[in-house]
Amino acid sequence: MRLNRSSTRPLLLVTVLMILAAMAILIVSCRNSTEQAGTNTEIVGATEDINAIAEARGLTPQDIANAVKTFTPSGRHDEYYLFASGGQSGQVYVIGLPSMRIVKQIAVFTPEPWQGFGYGAEGTMNVLEQGGLAADGTPLTWADTHHPGLSETDGEYDGQFLFINDKANARVAVIDLRDFEVKQIVKNPITLSDHGGTFVTPDTDWIVEGGQYGMPLGFEYSSIDNYEADYRGMITFWKFDREAGRIAYDQSFAIELPPYWQDLCDSGKLVSDGWIFCNSINTELATGGVELGNPPFESGASQNDMDFLHIINLNKAAEVYAAGNVEMINDFPVIPLDTAIAEGLLYFAPEPKSPHGSDVTPDGEFIIVAGKLDPHVTVFGFDKIMAAIEAGTSDTDAYGVPILDFDSVMEAQVELGLGPLHTQFDDKGYAYTSLFLDSAVARWSLGGSFDELNEDPPWTLVTKTPVQYNIGHITAAEGDTVSPDGNWLVAMNKWAVDRFMPVGPLLPQNFQLLDISGGGTDMPVVYDMPLPDGEPHYAQIIKADKLAPWDVYPEVGWDPHTQAVWDGAPKQGEERVERDGNNVTVYMTAIRSHFTPERVEIKKGDHVTWHITNVERALDATHGFTIPAYNIHVSIEPGEVVTFEFDAMQDGVFSYYCTEFCSALHLEMMGYMMVEPSDEASAPTD
Ligand code: RUQ
Ligand code: CUA
Known about the structure:
Distance between the termini: 41 Å
Bound molecules: (dicuprio-$l^{3}-sulfanyl)-sulfanyl-copper, dinuclear copper ion
Number of strands: 42
Low-confidence stretches: 1-39
Mean pLDDT: 93
Oligomer: single chain
Structural class: alpha+beta
């Protein structure tokens, strides 16, 4: 012991000297760069005169106002969390508002080494495997994430869970916002692509996953010549068990729908609670084949002036499911289309033209559908829909689904501009709609109970703000809840074009922050933020004080995948390596700045199960762990226990080490795994 202590002293001295040397180099290089940068930089560096700085940097008074609105000084926290889909990255981005600083990327569907997601840690491997297998039998390792959905209580975000869909494989993930980690991925058992998800019902009883492209349900083969007869659409309702923090697979069900392409859905709220509204495209039942001389999908699926808004009685559907009035497809209960019609679960309302988006107003009274090829948004009245259902209709589509009369359910049509897509809301009686072709955000006034909140006449365009460029979704602060905040809106632009420094042919997305607090025609863009990793579709913005994430895991030995202490977690003083035949179990602890044990001696062919507990209680005292050549990397956050398993198929000496720079002596936080060659080692035992 004494020897050890005295030997660290010269080491500390060396470290201090090295730090001093590094600081000296830094000071010299800073001075050099200031000199090289010329006059402008000198003025900026030397003055606190804001006008002089603005002049030197070429900033307008508007630029300065925008900067002041969003600038968040060091140490100060943002007011909102923005949870953005990560698009093709398969992940979720956490961004602070109004600063637009990225705070975290949450690994969801795609392996991510820093968080130790998918590099050996048992819990994470299980989540990935739950998500279903690719055609070659290996786990799917990417996703096209589209629509994050925060859990709600009484139609308000409650900050507990986040859900997100994978359009590419029809999957839904559950993220726990206590530790910002994914806990579950469910694969849709009857279809391969989704889009109308994830949207929650006002108390998060159900997570809605609407389909996208028609296909034979249950993954059967059928020639596309049989499209009308054999292909189908669907909507799945995942039951959410809030207590368990998981989707209850065995309490969930789907409804068979005609093979139109169901698109985006929203849940009713307040008066319309219990109903679901999905727009659709391709009621033409186009089957493509441009190479055969057929019209391509883009025109084949855009012939009709009207497609169908799907109006679904979820509460009644849940009763039909509970009564067992279902067919099993891949062991999953599906209410057949005929049953859905007979039970009055499904109605259509015509919606113009190449519709997109389906957004329910904060009071639940209106459903807004945009038409990609129509300069209007169409507003449907929920009371009118109910009255039309009550009155009955003899009109049906080819599958027998009742079609309500357009004029009797339509409340208003508002001309906004070219390519309207998605709508959000504020607290001043305004709706906001993205205009893809115009590259603009439109503000327009709502009618009904919202009429008195602003001075504008109901159902009229108030103003438009250009955005850069090709806007998809928009998201406003709590803008799809029963009580939107009305201060910020983010335009999620698909093309950045000239907004940022060039980075080659693949450009980032451009998130633009708009200040919508002013009302009227005042709606400036105040910040541009490049997002460099996939094309997010939707995002949601929640008030930061609604979240209560853990600083560290509640107790030492915490398993994040059960959210409970694991009794078997290695404890300090009880670290050991146990052998049972060819099975070796390592019980290890991590604390600044050592792992215990520091030597693990095994034989080639052993099957190794390795547990590590991070016994730290200090905020941010995370340790990483890797064994070279074995493709293992885990992140062990304070209190967490991590388990991984592998077969020691390669002999030799392997230096394992901590991958997080956790302390001054982090480099010394290592050990040796020695794998002795062994003749008996051929096949490992299980
Ligand atoms: S779909 S913008 Cu949510 Cu419009 Cu992708
Ligand atoms: Cu622990 Cu570095």
